[in-house]
Amino acid sequence: MTDRIYEFIGAAFDKASHMPGCADAPDALRKCGLMQRVRWLGKQGISGIDGDNVPSTDGEAYPATLQFCKDLAVRVALSYEQGHTPIIIGGDHSISMGSVSAAAAFLRSSIGPTARLGLIWVDAHPDLETPKSTSSGNLHGTSAAHLLGFGDDEFSGIAGNAPKVLPCDTVYIGLRDTSLSERALIRDNQIKAFTMTDVVRHGIAVLCDQALKTMDGVDGFVVSFDMDAIDPAEAPAVQAPERGGLLFREACVLMELLGASPKLMSVELVELLPALDRDEMTQRAAISLIEAAIGRRIV
Fold first, then answer.
1. CB-based burial of residue 120 (10 Å sphere; 0-12 exposed, 13-18 middle, 19+ buried)?
2. What's the domain count of the chain?
3. Residue of 98, 92, 28, 97 whose CA lies nearest to 269
4. Which of the 8 DSSP states describes residue 62?
């Protein structure tokens, strides 16, 4: 039994990436049975409502991404103000610049300017490129950098002060593809980063406990889950597949343990490309991850 009301908000946006299609994910998951599963979980005392989609914005990548993130920040802020726990379905990973900014702003407005937001980023990639360092120019690869205050002032300043998250309050899980500039940012700022080698060596439950220990010093935290964190053998329909990722069962355990924390403020799930899916494998995996995060019980 939980007193949370989970609100499912679609972030139907994909202009910050190299491949269109992520904007279709929110409606694809609904069609695949997301809200039916949420209603079924009502039997376990879990409450959820459909908050519809924040529609995509038109135009070139930079202004369209900036405007969408501002619009999403407003929508997620409303969810917090209504006492809900947002579950944001992307969309490419640029959407985190809006959703995480809203969480930081809500903490600062409700607790005070010194309130600290934590960020657990589950991803094959750290998304710590800046507009100056990126070779691809794709803004979805700069999202974490902007949240930590390393990037462009306009993106870093969405919904208020920058940075949204301090490096000491950030944890990566599942990394297996990083650039030289990203590795330098992680090292220089002493960001806690667990690679797939760490997952294999220590086990996902141990790393989750360490991530939650890092969250002891924050007032609330957000989980940002990129579907490419999972091995493409089990979740093929993603933007940037990398072999050797999390097993589906490891991802479910992670989401279950993180979702049980009273400090959890929101979960976002991004980078799902429904058009590339095989027999709805990735979509069904995504729904299972969401169920785990919101408290589905096995026994």
1. buried
2. 1
3. 92
4. H
- Residue 291: closest CA among 36, 90, 75: 36
Nearest CA-CA partner of 127 in 228, 201, 209? 228
> Beta strand pairing status for 5-11 and 85-90?
parallel
Please count the other Cβ atoms lying within 10 Å of the Cβ belonging to residue 17: 26
Contacts of 63 (CB under 8 A, 6+ apart): none
Domain membership flag for residue 299: no
Q: Look at residue 140 and tell me if it is in a domain.
A: yes
Asked if the model's pLDDT at residue 36 lies above 90, the reply is yes
pLDDT at 1 over 60: no
CA–CA distance, 4 with 47 (Å, rounded to integer): 7
Is there a domain that residue 272 lies in?
A: yes
Among candidate residues 219, 225, 230, the one with its CA nearest the CA of residue 118:
219
Q: Which pLDDT value is given to residue 138?
A: 83
In DSSP notation, 125-143 reads S-----TTT-SS--GGGGH
The tokens describing 176, both together, are 């297996």
What percentage of the chain carries pLDDT values higher than 70? Answer: 99
Q: Which residues on adjacent β-strands are paired with residue 220?
A: 117
Q: Residue 140 belongs to what domain range?
A: 5-294
Query: Token digits for 236?
Result: 């093929």
Residues 6+ apart with CB under 8 A from 4: 46, 47, 84, 85, 294, 295
Residue 77 within a domain: yes
What secondary structure does DSSP assign to 189-213, as a single string? TT-EEEEHHHHHHH-HHHHHHHHHH
